[in-house]
Design goal:
The chain has helices spanning 2-14, 16-42, 52-67, 73-84, 89-111, 114-119, 123-134, 136-145, 151-160, 165-189, 193-198, 203-239. The chain is mainly alpha-helical. The model has no long low-confidence stretch (mean pLDDT 78). The two termini are 25 Å apart.
């Protein structure tokens, strides 16, 4: 028992910076977005009728804020739809991709491969990580379609698996599209920024879509992890 406790303590100590970063990635979007909502209401004229240059600057800024977990992706989709209408949708998709790559790179810099190095010391864990990498497209896509899994946190977690960067980018963009379209469309239909951000619903059909995305994500992730775990255990048994 003491051996397991010492192992857990060693795991936490060696990866303390990683765990602290992950905690901040969950908390920061909630704190910052609530403050920004009222700032946008006070200065909403600044984001209306933007020139092309200003729109590019806007997408560069939100790419950074999403990557650094300062603004949730849902918040950005709603605000972009409200202020920019459909002309801004392609820019938002690109901004999501840029934010994903920035988050991926920052996570690699913070972690320095320490998490994988520790897990690779255990044969079953090492084989499981390999199996998850083999199914990385499905894994990334399923984490991205969920409207409840934090974008920046998933960038961090997925980067720890050392997934191929190009595959990470493409699967992230494709996975984000369904909920991005939904929340962007809601933004285009709103009349007031505060009511939009406080109650971003579009009736029963919208709620059903969100439930369907969450169920698909949870069910799909369970299937991916279950299949990867079974394969990992089978391979570990064969090697022994």
């Amino acid at each position: 028992m003491s051996g397991r406790f010492n192992l857990l303590r060693s795991f936490i100590r060696k990866n303390a910076s990683t765990f602290v970063s992950m905690l901040l990635l969950v908390a920061m979007p909630l704190i910052v977005s609530s403050t920004l909502a009222y700032s946008l209401y006070s200065y909403q004229d600044l984001l209306q009728n933007l020139s092309v240059g200003h729109m590019l600057l806007y997408f560069a800024v939100v790419s950074l804020t999403m990557a650094l977990a300062l603004t949730p992706t849902t918040f950005v989709a709603l605000v972009s739809g409200f202020f920019l209408s459909w002309v801004g949708f392609p820019g938002l998709v690109v901004a999501y991709g840029v934010a994903a790559l920035i988050g991926y790179s920052l996570a690699r810099l913070i972690d320095h491969g320490k998490m994988m190095s520790f897990l690779n010391g255990f044969e079953k864990a090492r084989i499981l990580m390999q199996e998850l990498r083999h199914q990385s497209w499905s894994l990334i896509f399923l984490t991205r379609i969920s409207p409840v899994l934090p974008f920046a946190l998933m960038n961090f977690v997925l980067s720890l698996l050392q997934i191929d960067k190009r595959k990470f980018l493409l699967a992230s963009i494709v996975g984000m599209l369904p909920r991005t379209l939904f929340f962007f469309w809601i933004g285009t239909q709103a009349n007031n920024i505060i009511s939009l951000l406080e109650s971003p619903e579009s009736g029963r059909s919208g709620q059903l879509l969100m439930i369907a995305l969450i169920i698909t994500s949870i069910g799909g992730l369970y299937f991916v992890f279950d299949r990867a775990l079974k394969k990992a255990l089978r391979k570990a048994a064969d090697q022994n």
